[in-house]
Predict the structure.
Amino acid sequence: MEKVVVVHYSEIATKGKNREFFEKKLLSNIRRATKARVRRRYGRMEVEYKDGVVERLRKIPGIRYLGVGLKTSLEMDEIKESALEVLPSSFTSFKVDTSRSNKNFPLNSVEINREVGRHLMVKTGKKVDLKSPDVIIWIEICDKEAYVYSERIEGVGGLPVGVAGKVVSLISGGIDSPVAAFMMMKRGCEVVLAHFFNQTMHSPKVREKIRMLAEKLAEYQGEIKLYMVPFQDIQMEIIKSTPPKLRMIVYRRSMMRMANLIAEKEGCKAVVTGDSLSQVASQTLENINVVYSSSRLTVLPPLIGMDKEEIVNLAKKIGTYEISIMPYEDCCSFMIARHPETRAKIEEIVNYENFDELEERAVEKSEIVEVKVF
Ligand code: ATP
Ligand code: MG
């Protein structure tokens, strides 16, 4: 018997010819995150149990769930003994749930459930409850070995980071954009972050806050690159050239163009934002059209159809919420109108734009922060 973590992934299994590529990516991501021995076994991964391994694995995109327990031989005696061993110290009822990929095993799943169940009843005096047991003992019968565990932990789901290519994700200090970045990681993207800030008015606290968000997001991806782009020169130009009502659209188009410049440097294939349709004035369909049309690359807004409440719940789940609600001065609120334009027209907007050089210079002057968790 050996203590191990069994890693299950679902969606990868459906990817046909790409399966090999996806599995190898997941394997190398797990190795990098855990520094533990990892093996591909029968459509699962088997990870050597070490301190901290479970905490790391529960944040790796591409993992559906983990089983923390024992690896045993295919001897029924050893399987029964393991089942006893993985039981928690206190419980009143249990059930055994076996899956059998090894069709040559002499007993079928129902027979295994019965035999192990009987053994546990005799040894512990506890009762079987098939409907709502306190504990489930999972048994997986594979070709050369079996896994037995009672601790099953949900993973992030999705696909391994790196299988879908790179994106640049625009991150503000708000609740939404960190969630958007996370959602792209979960779809297999490697995320590069870009934050635009006003150097002359931002306190070190803002810088710290963005860094903390980057660090939290890096727990899912391993490491993350953050571009801190100084935005004040462009803001000054916008204030000079553009009526307050339209400034918000103009500055967001400018951010979009700079995101494209960063994407070029980093080899990113799309730009990601935290926009959610109609949530605020900048996010009407009209304004979204005008803002996104300044991007050469496709713009992906993964939160577009989500309610605020759903976004907040996800932010809490991934651990960015507590950081996002820390006090923060928005880089641009001082320069926009109280009632910004909600139906911007592109013909009008382009008259106010002439910042190409300033934008190039701002990206050149970016401070690049590299955060590494594993
Ligand atoms: P968030 O909660 O992410 O701040 P929001 O609902 O406040 O979003 P806006 O302020 O309109 O919406 O911003 C929309 C999106 O534009 C953000 O989700 C983010 O992707 C991007 N964005 C806004 N401000 C910045 C900034 N200073 N730096 C980088 N990206 C930004
Ligand atoms: Mg915001």
